[in-house]
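Data availability (excerpt). The following record was deposited with the supplementary files.
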Amino acid sequence: MAEPPSDPHLLVIQLQFARSEFKRCLEGVNPEDAVKRLQPMNCISWIIGHLANQEHRYWVKSAQGKCIAEGLNELVGFGQPPSIPPLEEMWEIWRKVTRAADVYILNLKQDTLKDYLVRDGEPSPENIGTMLQRNIYHYWFHTGEAHAIRQMLGHENLPQFVGDMSVAQYR
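Predicted structure:
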């Protein structure tokens, strides 16, 4: 496998930062609390799988033509019935998908962000740059939701947001 570029695009750095803050938000969540559903919200394990599903759909299936998480969309996709998947299974899938997504996104360049990926034989409705932004904002949305769930579950000493920006400074 080729070395990733030493200077990824700023939006890719922001996505990686959003991922790291998401993981930081969920440090210490136990398997029992991860599957508690405080309706109408989904459970924490669902949120992990849901974000993996978006990255899989965008950066693995559409961008690379691969499917490495069969059935994930049916389990945690937008508009699907609620589910309560096991925490470790969702983290395992999330790690596998984000590693595969990085193969694509770490090589994005400014001039390719206005291109459109093909999904189901049709151009995506949004260009790659907008998809990156949507993915970043999706992480922040669900990070806040997961943080609220943790507060409602009585978790203490939760992380403060936003964390150390030194790895994602504007350039």
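Summary of structural features: The first strand starts at residue 118 and ends at 119.
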